[in-house]
Design brief:
Layout lengths: L43 E5 L2 E4 L5 E3 L2 H4 L8 H13 L11 H13 L4 E7 L2 H18 L7 E5 L8 H6 L3 H4 L11 E4 L4 H8 L7 H23 L4 E6 L2 E2 L6 E2 L4 H12 L2 E6 L27 E4 L11 E6 H18 L21 H16 L2 H20 L5 E7 L2 E6 L15 H12 L2 E2 L1 E8 L2 E7 L7 H21 L1
Helix pairs in contact: 2-11, 3-11, 7-8, 8-9, 12-14, 13-14
The structure holds pyridoxal-5'-phosphate.
Pyridoxal-5'-phosphate binds next to helix 4.
């Protein structure tokens, strides 16, 4: 059928050049047989609510919404109605020729949702596009600000920000970078260690577990020192931006930043005049219990707004391919000043004409049907009070996962927030040694879960660094009930137990 596996939706273990035949262990298992792309996947007939219905076999409980996308569940008539209504009016209009009501309404709604901290919206179709746009806008911002020396980006190891060459350059995901390494920009993109306390805090503090506060402080100091050192090494005046996910999704398996980390990073960026870019492609738009991950609803949480923010996945919940770049007040101000200056010098068409003067564009930018879908999804999340449900059911999900799996000898860590939870598997719980990548442990769990327990989870590799480490992610729709949360945990735990009995 000519379809290829996506490197984002499947680990690359069968195609990576650095893997040998010997890495693919257990040749007696059908999980280890070389497969052609899409072999063995069920054919989908329909999806409704929290279930996928394959053309043969019983329905599958959806515990991950694809890659954390289907935030409203499947088959919502109100959303498809909003889409078809828009399509009947007009299905497409170029952003260069028309303003459209759905795009205007969505932009206004998004800006309001940030309390005005973000002031412009750039609507696109994928997370990679949003990150690519963030990188290019940063470059142009500093040109206009008269600081052309700011050409360096700092991001983190074991991160994923997209599949295009720019967004992959800023990513620190070992396996996804590996085949393209010579083509990635290593001159301007620099990586520092992630903020991953499960894997880093133990080695780096000298306090017994009883003195958790001192250990946390010491860990935070280590993280800020790493970032400061990167600024110092590159020359603070050359750093354009720091790029990070406030809660790391697929690359690490739902790892929240430690308290104080985001504020510390923002303070360092501000002190050195660099921008802060949040990649909320996966963790944003309600997934962690607040609409934007930086607007934590927890008591005493410090709100850390970025200068640029990418959103996608839960933005339109999979009803259309939607992403956006949200542009903060500081950046907009400089761009507006630049536009005025050009107009004064060159007349009203100077610098590309009216409004926002970013030298960037996509044919499907500001697509009216995409906007109508995103608006309908976001209005439903708001109207139905679903963020509250994300927080309540998220607490239940975390508690049940820890109760059922926390003591398992091969479960190293259960972490997350809202309806965004990861389970990391280890060979040895004490040393945290990961499994050999060739065993494909997370993939086995995913396959046993779907085939034997009829529940779909999202799996990934690389959470222990250097392409090692296995995790699964549980990210049900925001409409999930407590009964279904319990059922998801039951089925997932059954699959985990079965996989490790057989290993
Ligand atoms: C955090 C993050 N950023 C960017 C991307 C890229 O998004 P897309 O696959 O829509 O291009 C992803 C995709 O998984 C992601 O998880």
């Amino acid at each position: 059928m000519g379809q290829f596996l996506s490197s984002c939706s499947k680990p690359a273990r069968r195609i990576l050049p650095h893997k040998t035949e010997g890495d693919i262990a257990d040749s007696s298992s059908d999980l280890a047989q070389p497969q052609t792309p899409l072999d063995g996947l069920p054919v989908l007939k329909k999806a409704k609510g929290h279930y996928w219905y394959p053309s043969d076999g019983p329905r599958i409980l959806d515990a991950c919404g694809g890659a954390g996308v289907a935030c409203l569940g499947h088959g919502r008539r109100d959303i498809t109605k909003a889409i078809t209504t828009q399509m009947e009016a007009y299905a497409y209009a170029s952003y260069a020729h028309f303003k459209t009501a759905p795009v205007d309404e969505l932009s206004d709604w998004l800006i309001k949702s940030t309390g005005g901290k973000m002031q412009k919206v750039y609507l696109m179709c994928s997370g990679s596009e949003a990150i690519e746009a963030a990188l290019k806008l940063t470059i142009e911002y500093f040109l206009w600000k008269g600081q052309p020396a700011r050409t360096n980006f700092i991001s983190r190891h074991d991160s994923y920000h997209g599949t295009t060459l720019g967004s992959l350059s800023v990513s620190g995901h070992f396996a996804r970078r590996e085949p393209f390494r010579p083509f990635l920009n290593q001159a301007h993109f620099h990586h520092i260690p992630a903020c991953n306390p499960y894997r880093q805090q133990q080695q780096n503090h000298h306090h017994p577990p009883t003195n958790a506060d001192a250990a946390a402080k010491e860990y935070l100091a280590l993280k800020t020192a790493e970032l400061e050192a990167a600024f110092a090494r590159l020359g603070p005046h050359t750093v354009a931006a720091v790029v990070l996910e406030p809660l790391v999704g697929a690359a690490l398996g739902c790892v929240p930043a430690v308290p104080g980390y985001l504020a510390a990073v923002k303070a360092i960026c501000a002190r050195h005049g660099a921008l802060l870019i949040f990649d909320e492609v996966m963790c944003g738009m309600g997934r962690t219990g607040s609409l934007h991950a930086w607007q934590s609803e927890e008591e005493d949480a410090v709100v850390v707004a970025p200068d640029l923010q990418a959103v996608a996945k839960g933005f339109a919940g999979g009803y259309q391919p939607a992403s956006a770049l949200l542009v903060g007040e500081k950046v907009v101000r400089v761009m507006e000043e630049e536009r005025k200056k050009r107009e004064e010098e060159e007349g009203p068409w100077g610098g590309g004409g009216k409004g926002f003067t970013f030298t960037h564009g996509h044919t499907y930018q500001n697509h009216p049907v995409v906007a109508a879908a995103a608006l309908a999804v976001q209005r439903a999340v708001e109207r139905e009070g679903l963020l509250g449900n994300v927080r309540v059911q998220g607490q239940l999900l975390g508690r049940l996962l820890k109760e059922r799996l926390g003591a398992h000898p091969h479960v190293g860590d259960v972490r997350g927030k809202g309806l965004f939870w990861g389970v990391e598997f280890v060979k040895d719980k004490v040393t945290k040694e990961p499994f050999e990548p060739g065993l494909g442990v997370a993939e086995r769990v995913q396959k046993v879960a779907v085939r034997g327990f009829r529940v779909l989870v999202y799996h990934g590799q690389g959470c222990a660094g250097g392409g090692r480490g296995d995790h699964i992610m549980i990210m049900p729709a925001y409409t999930i009930s407590g009964r279904l949360v319990a059922e998801i945990v039951d089925r997932v735990a059954g699959a985990v137990e079965e996989v490790f009995r057989g290993l």
